[in-house]
Structure formats: structure tokens, C-alpha cells
Amino acid sequence: MIARVPPAPGTLASGAPALSRAAEGGVPALAAASALQAARLVLRRDLQLAFRKRSQLVQPLAFFAMVTMLFPLATSPELSKLREIAPGVIWAAALLASLLALEFLFRDDAHDGTLEQYALSGQSLTWLMFAKTCAHWLLTGLPLALMAPVAALSLGAPGTSLPGILLSVAVGSVTVSLIGAIGAALTLGVKRGGVLLSLLTLPLSLPVLIFGARATQLAISGAPFLAPLELLAALAVLGVTLAPLAAAAAVRISLE
Amino acid sequence: MTWTWFHRLASPPYAYALAARLTPWFAWPAALLILGGLWGGLVLAPPDYQQGEGFRIIYVHAPSAWMSLMVYTTMAIAAAVGLIWRIKVAHAVAASCAPIGASFTFAALVTGALWGEPMWGTYWEWDPRLTSELVLLFLYLGYMGLRAGIEDPQRADRASAVLAVVGVVNVPIIHYSVTWWNSLHQAPSVMRLGKPHMPATMLVPLLMMLLGFTLFFVALLLVRLRGEILSRERSASWIREVVRA
Amino acid sequence: MKEFLDMGGYALYVWPAYAVTLTVVVLNIVWARRALTRSRAEARRRLIAQGELQ
Lengths: 256, 245, 54
Hints:
The complex is a heterotrimer of chains A (256), B (245) and C (54). In chain A, 79% of the residues lie in helices and 0% in strands. With 256 residues, chain A is an all-alpha fold. Chain A has one domain (32-255). The longest helix of chain A has 33 residues, at 79-111. Chain A starts with 15 loop residues before the first helix and ends with a helix. The relative contact order of chain B is 0.19. Chain B is mainly α and 245 residues long. The longest helix of chain B has 33 residues, at 12-44. The B-C interface holds B 34, 42-43, 47, 52-54, 56-57, 60-61, 63-64, 99-100, 103-104, 106-107, 110-111, 114-115, 117-118, 216, 220, 223-224, 226-228, 230-231, 233-235, 237, 239-240, 242-244 and C 4, 7-10, 13-14, 16-18, 20-21, 24-25, 27-29, 31-33, 35-40, 42-44, 46-47, 50, 52-53.
């Protein structure tokens, strides 16, 4: 991440691309909307902008596939052995891939002053952070959850385990997006903040890793996996209530 | 009445002077307690019936582990106070805590490993406590890394404060998840000393060490706090007197 | 005395553990004092540069 001084408060960053990006998502309309409408506007904007740069969207997913592939090559092609490490491999790869995508969560918005417009718009920044996190999950977490079963198959998981794997990654990645948003907000503008972002987010995501890998492991062995899945869901609920607040506080601090 | 005391503490020159005055009151008792605890633990306490003389590592491992947690909690509380009430001195306290806590977390890990080898037959063991301790070390490093990475000191204060608060909320969750994970794999029984209750000759030195280290932490904190306060006061007139002295 | 140093055979573990902890204690003292000295020197320099001292 390039260190960048945000434009002075109250001024809009100059440049036609910035304005068109801003106008695209209806930033001027933000102040007039209700909290829910504003959140929806931000969500829609993030999704639209992301789909313009589809190559950037695909990168974390390609990374996930690549990392998954490393393990058979590094250990053994025997499916029975791979099946044992599959939960760990999938979850470690998914976490790392999510981290990659988190770097971009705020970068462009901070770059062109949109983030400041959010902070100054009078809208609840917490809701807007929730919206941005939703966008991140839809663009990264959900695709990873859809890819995870495929990766699991390649590592010897039985077909019956696939729904469980999809579910656990889907729920777990919600919390990762939420925690990651806090980290991304804190490391805004820090030189080479990507590594620091990982250092901050990974310890906090360990519970997700532990419960998620356990759920995946149980699914692969055919056992009921509801208990860890429920723990994952509990973490997600806790995250949804608290994380956007912390992210909003972090964004305000980073914009000072 | 109580609030004036709080507000006075928030005043940098007052806090600075108070820290300077209080330091010996914590440093010397700490030294006495630690020396006494070492004597009691190494010489006076009888060997454990299961672990023999090896159990004596507890007299340095337990205080280190205690420090790592206590300092993190202090750091988080100070950070929260600094965030909520915007008190620079509180941020200075939080900043002072981090290196102390990180170094004792390291000590706890190393002494834990040295205790593990003769007792479990392995230097490292992914038991809940050691694993949580390792995660705590990363939390400290992340905190210090964030502080170092942000150039503006005020922004560094506030950003790292958010991180500390988020971290402290997570510590129990992390500990629970690690314990849960560990229990699944029928880990070897947790380190425990032979008898269910420690006799006084074993317990008293341990308490002395715990208290001594706590006082030591306060003394260290007070010394570091002064430096942190100074670096946050750009051109206040009271600094002139301090620096001239 | 020999028995004390031998620590019932655990000397290889007990003494390094104590050594590491002692080192951390001493280093903390050194670092804290050095940090304070450095801050004072910096504050001094700053004030001189601002013309408020000397």
C-alpha cells in the first residue's frame, strides 16, 4: 500500500476520474438518505466499482487455488494423507486470500477522498462500514466459500462433505471480513501496511480458524458438525454487532 | 473530590512529577520481594514429589506469564481511557506498557518451553496456555508495529488504542477457542505440581515473586511514562524546568 | 552447594530459565532508563532549536 496523505477535510479530491467515481455511487446523495438507504448506496457502489476491475476481483481467488495446490506438491499426492490436512489447508489458504483482498477495502476510497465524504456526510459511519464489509464478503468471502468445496475435493474430501465445507467457510469468512475491516482501517496509509494488516488480523481471526477447521474436519469425516458451526455463527453475530463500530472509529482516526 | 484527583493525573506535568516521586517506592520493595522470593523458591522450598527440583521454574515462569497478561490488560484500560476521554497521559501509559509486556511474554514462552522439555519430553507443546501466550506475543507485536508504522504521534496513539481495545475483547475468545481446540485432541495433562495444594513453603515465595514482579512493572512503567510524556509535550513551558534540571 | 547447582538433575533447564528471566528483567531496566534519557535529550534539543532554552 502506498502511504498517502488524504486530502484536507472539506475539500474534494480533484480529478475527473475521482469525481466520476464519486458520482457513480451517488456520494452527493448520501447526506440526504436514511441510514439504511445510505448503506445500500455504498454497498451498490462498491460492488459496481469492483466489477469494473474484474481482474482484481479474481486475484485473491486465484491465490487461494494456488496455495491449495502447494500442499499436495509439497507433501504427497496420496488422497488419504491429503484428506487429513485438508481442513487446515483450506482454512489457512482462505484466511490468507481474504487478507489479500482486505488491502483494497479502503485503499481506493481513501485515495480519492470518498472515505472522507462518508465521514463528513453526517451518516452513521458504522452503517457505512457495515455496508463496505458486506461488499467485501460478497466479493471475496462468498466466492471463497464456493471454491472451498472444489479445493476440498482435490484434497480427497468425499462429496458428502461439500455442503458442510461450503457452509463453514461461508459463515467463518463473515467474521474474517469484519475483523479485517478494522485492521484495514487502522493501517490506512501505513507504508507497506499489507504485512502489518496480516499481523493484526491473523491473531484476532484464530478462533474462526479453529472452529472453522474443526467444522470442516467433522464434515469430511462424516460426523455432525453443528457445534463448531454454531460457534462460528456466534462469532459472526458478535462481529456484526461490534466490528463495524470499531472500524468506523478506526476510519475516523485514520482520517484525522 | 474524587474527580479532581483524576483530572490532576491527566495533567502531564503533574503526572510526570508524581511518576518521578513514586518510582523508588515501587522499585525498592519490588527488589526486596523478588530477592526474597528467589531465596524462598530456590533454597527454602522443598522439592516437588513429582517434578523434583525442576518445579522451581515456576518461580520465574508464573510471574512472567502473569506479567504478560496483567500488562496487556493495563495497556488496554489505559488505551480505552485515552480514547474515551482524550487524555494524552493515558496514551503515554499504554505506550509504556507494550515493550514491557512483550518482553515478559517472551520470557514466559521460553521458561515454559524449558519447563516442558523435562516434564513433557518436548520443548514446545501446543497446550492452551503456551499457545495463548504465543498469540498474546503477536498481539503485542502487532500493537507495537502499528505504533511504529503511523507517523503522526496523535494518530498512532488513537489507532493503537483501538487495536488494544479490540485485542482485549478478543483475548478471552482466543483463549476459549484454543482451550476448546486443545481439549479435542486429548492433550497431555496440564502441568501440575504433585500435591493438590501447595504447602506454604512453596506458595509463599511464589506469591512474593508475583507481587514483586507487579511492583517492578509499576516502577518500569513510571520510568517509561516520563519519557513518553516528554515526547508528547512539544513545547510546554514546564518542560524547560525538567530539562534544565 | 553442588547439589544446589545441580538442581536434582534439572540444572540444564532450571538455570537457563532463571537466566532468561533475569536477563529480561535487567534489559527492561536498561531500556526504560535509556528511553527516558533519550526523551529528555530530545526535548532539550527541541527547546534549544525553538530558542526557548539556552
